[in-house]
TrEMBL record:
One of the record's GO molecular function terms: RNA binding
Catalytic activity: ATP + H2O = ADP + phosphate + H(+)
Membrane topology according to the record: Peripheral membrane protein
InterPro entries: DEAD/DEAH_box_helicase_dom, Helicase_ATP-bd, Helicase_C-like, P-loop_NTPase, RNA-helicase_DEAD-box_CS, RNA_helicase_DEAD_Q_motif
Function of the protein: ATP-dependent RNA helicase associated with the nuclear pore complex and essential for mRNA export from the nucleus. May participate in a terminal step of mRNA export through the removal of proteins that accompany mRNA through the nucleopore complex. May also be involved in early transcription.
Lineage: Eukaryota, Fungi, Dikarya, Ascomycota, Pezizomycotina
Top-rank EC class of the record's enzyme: hydrolase
UniProt main location, coarse: nucleus
Region (Disordered): 1-30
Location of the Helicase C-terminal domain: 278-446
The protein's name: RNA helicase
Listed EC numbers: 3.6.4.13
GO terms under cellular component: cellular bud tip; cytoplasmic stress granule; nuclear membrane; nuclear pore cytoplasmic filaments
Originating organism: Coniochaeta ligniaria NRRL 30616
Length: 472
């Protein structure tokens, strides 16, 4: 069968002469090099640009190698130990001293998935609030989805489990009582709901000290979310500390972020460090669009070795694929923005617990969500952006595949292509990040299955396996 790959060449990982697949399992971080819960102990140097107010010889950049050096309250340190955080990750070593310093200063931090960004800003949240005022909002975290807001709320509660009187509230649709309003020292919410609560005088922002925006590139770039974030900021105290975090910061968004968080310290990775280590990135050259579904069903057995997320372009596609797969006897669930909040929470809880193992979703789950059992991500539709989906969405691709291979574990991403547009889009993404993609063939299922299983069933990659090449 002639496929598009016969006519167009994507960057692919070369097979060794002996026919083995040494490129299938990327090299991994050894178990003893992670900080307790498996945050990636990256070898890259964190690039730091000091804010204007600190850019002098009297205020040198410094870092820490242990949490003890930060002088954290005992309750917070005990929470870290209970969570098995033994030492800071690279991003935490550099970021925490700057974020916790007084007087507080803004920060823009960019680092790949699984490097401890959430832990860094959660420690700052816990350190900034006065626990003697448990119902007075003092720190606000904004996230793009209710799922991510709930997850961040859980992390704050876990690390702060020994902080007496700590109250963390989720400012998401349907969760805040209209009678009492927000009564918590730390608040995690979505921009629209937070804005409405402030307008209705159900959220007292007068004593807020800290504003954190997670997935900031998406939050500030998208017209709706960006407008809401600006309005929320305009309602807050003028001297509030602002922390912007994301795995990606395109140049145009960084320019805007610098205005949103003036005089901010900046931390970022070089472009070639952005792809997620530990994920074997593959693509399936499907004969045509109709055959994509048949290939997806063939992959079902591999999807349920661990857990899997299937990303599609629209809600209708998610519903239709769920309907067809269930009719064909496969157990799957779908989650997207059309579901009511309680249903979304329940669906995600089922997926986290393993009661549901295959989840079909839109980009609502592309960012930040951490489910440790996810071993495979499928890009059923290549992420696109712009009017009429005319250009590939590099950043969304990176965030999607980052749902697997979390915290130094192995994972597989498989992107489906079937025509010139999808093929060219994936090729542009691969070239942008310098990825050598591994080709899978729908005509040789034994080889395809072997390649994928080798990755999924490896708890840690073996030294003899080479990583997917990262081009300079």
């Amino acid at each position: 069968m002639s496929t598009l790959a016969d006519r167009v060449t994507l960057p692919t990982a070369a097979d060794p002469a002996d026919g083995t697949s040494s490129d299938v399992v990327p090299s991994q971080i050894p178990a003893d090099s992670t900080d307790g819960v498996g945050l990636i102990e990256s070898n890259f140097d964190v690039e730091v640009k000091l804010g204007d107010l600190q850019n002098d010889t009297e205020s040198p950049l410094y870092s820490v190698t242990s949490f003890e050096q930060l002088g954290l309250p005992k309750e917070i340190h005990d929470g870290l130990l209970a969570m098995n955080y033994k030492k800071p990750s690279k991003i935490q070593e550099k970021a925490l001293p700057l974020m916790l310093a007084n007087p507080p200063q803004n920060m823009i931090a960019q680092s790949q998935s699984g490097t401890g960004k959430t832990g860094a800003f959660v420690l700052t949240v816990l350190s900034r609030i006065d626990l003697k005022k448990p119902t007075q909002p003092q720190a606000l975290v904004l996230a793009p989805s209710r799922e991510l807001a709930r997850q961040i709320q859980s992390v704050i509660q876990s690390i702060g489990q020994f902080c007496t009187d700590l109250i963390v509230e989720a400012a998401i649709p349907g969760n805040v009582s209209r009678e009492t309003g927000v009564k918590a020292s730390a608040v995690v919410g979505t921009p629209g709901t937070v804005m409405d609560l402030i307008r209705r005088r159900q959220f007292d922002v007068s004593q807020l000290k800290l504003l954190v925006i997670d997935e900031a590139d998406n939050m500030l770039d998208q017209q709706g979310l960006g407008d809401q974030c600006v309005r929320v900021k305009s309602m807050l105290p003028k001297d509030i500390q602002i922390l912007l975090f994301s795995a990606t910061f395109p140049e145009k968004v960084m320019t805007y972020a610098e205005r949103f968080a003036p005089n901010a310290h900046q931390m970022k990775l070089r472009q070639q460090e952005l792809t997620v280590k530990g994920i074997s990135q593959m693509y399936m050259d499907c004969p045509d669009e109709n055959k994509k579904y048949d290939v997806l069903c063939k992959l079902y057995g591999l999807m349920t070795i661990g857990s899997s997320v299937i990303f599609v372009r629209t809600r209708d596609s998610a519903n239709e694929i769920q309907r067809r797969m269930e009719a064909d006897g496969h157990k799957v669930s779908a989650l997207h923005g059309a579901f009511e909040g309680a249903n979304r929470d329940a669906l995600l809880d089922d997926f986290r617990s393993g009661r549901s193992k295959v989840l079909i979703t839109t980009n609502v789950l592309a960012r930040g969500i951490d489910v440790s059992s996810v071993s495979m991500v499928i890009n059923y539709d290549i992420p696109m952006k712009g009017p009429g989906d005319r250009e590939p969405d590099n950043e969304t691709y990176l965030h999607r595949i980052g749902r697997t291979g979390r915290f130094g574990r192995v994972g597989v991403s498989i992107s489906f292509v079937y025509d010139r547009k999808s093929f060219d889009a994936l090729s542009q993404i691969a070239n942008h990040y310098g990825i050598d993609l591994i080709q899978l063939s729908p005509d040789d299922w034994d080889v395809t299955e072997k390649k994928v299983k080798e990755v999924i069933k490896s708890s840690r990659a073996k030294p003899e396996y080479a990583p997917s090449a990262i081009k300079n």
